[in-house]
Amino acid sequence: MGGSDSEVRQVRLVAHFPGVNNTTVWSDPASLSQIDFSSFEQLARTAERGRFDYFFLAEGLRLREHQGQIHDLDVVGRPDTLTVLAALASVTEHLGLAGTLSATYNEPYELARQLASLDHLSGGRAAWNAVTSSDAFTGENFRRGGYLDHADRYERAASFVRAVRGFWDAAGEGDGGARTARYHDRFFDIEARPTLPRAPQGRPVVIQAGDSPQGRDFAAASADVIFSRHGGFEEGKAFYADVKRRVRAHGRDPESLLIMPGVTYTVGDTAAEADEKALHVRYQQVSGQTAIRFAESVWGRDLSDHDPEGPLPDLDPVVEDTGITRGRTRLVRDPVATVREWRELAEAKRLSIRDLVVEVSARQTFVGTPESVAADIVTHVRERASDGFVLVPHITPGGLDDFVDRVVPLLQERGALRAEYTGATLRENLGLPPG
Ligand SMILES: Cc1cc2nc3c(=O)[nH]c(=O)nc-3n(C[C@H](O)[C@H](O)[C@H](O)COP(=O)(O)O)c2cc1C
Q: Could you list the residue ranges forming a coiled coil in this record (predicted)?
């Protein structure tokens, strides 16, 4: 991508269909169903109008729980990833279609076949976010696969991705258009021939999301794209440098792995208006009840008798895994240190529980006028804090409209975003080497 330093580096853009958490302001009348196809279609069409690289679905294979009850402060439930993407293939032409599918709970042959099918149906636009899935209780839904330790999940994922790629490669080779691919290791014992011809991309695009050293190495060894949480400028630069170093250590061209942090944004006519809007959105995202549940997940205790508009609980967190909140991907690793930091912050800024949760959990990455947001995005990519962004809107499904109408044209004027799609496949549009 990018080319010489005098050229403007191209910004890669991804539209994240909002998940079932409180990033979306579900109480806003503009927020519609997270299940109806019309919502997926609207967001995908908007992304394609904005010349985004791909549309992206996260996945949760079990409903979130809090204190043994379904966590129902936001919306609950979402349809199957591949089914939605297949339907979207018929209402879009160029947009990539990326689905999160767990390497812990699926089977390589089946998934390789499903992704190859999506690649055929969409004319070369399929992508797979190969996650390991982080919570043991999801494993209860999959008795056969069960749950694995963190390190085992990455070992299985590496073996899984190798097998999936092997099946993609075995298509179109050998007698009758396919050769037998064999995988025998600790996790798999498979000998199979693909049932489809070679996919248009050969190998559909593989994305990785996982932040530990093992996760980063897994991506450095085998992914085309990383979906990260490091959207801020300095943390983004540190993450970018770390991952590209790992990519080089695996003997790969650093440009062959794209780093795409998830970010949120608010645009306004003036900087002051954008700041005001952003703060308003944050308090809508974090209701009093949401703040208490968030605090409970860190303290590991019932805090329902606390006033969200009052001071932080004068209690120590319960350190052992109480399972009070299950099914979130973002868990605090060290509750004692986190609570200590929060106490200091709350005292210094005189924050209530709700103010504190707003402060630590829901800050938008880009806030400003369309001009300043476009300039910030170009700066992040130029300075290698990222190769682009996964935009997570706070309204479902219309939340990308203002970005596409107001920021995209400015990125195009600066030469940082394509005016038209030029590649035949997602891989080509992303500027990745052939699969
Ligand atoms: C940005 C990001 C997004 C993720 N999205 C999902 C998801 O949609 N579904 C899922 O099952 N796991 C998801 N995960 C979980 C990871 O696959 C992984 O299991 C978890 O982060 C633990 O690995 P780590 O210690 O390497 O981060 C996500 C992780 C990250 C960092």
A: none
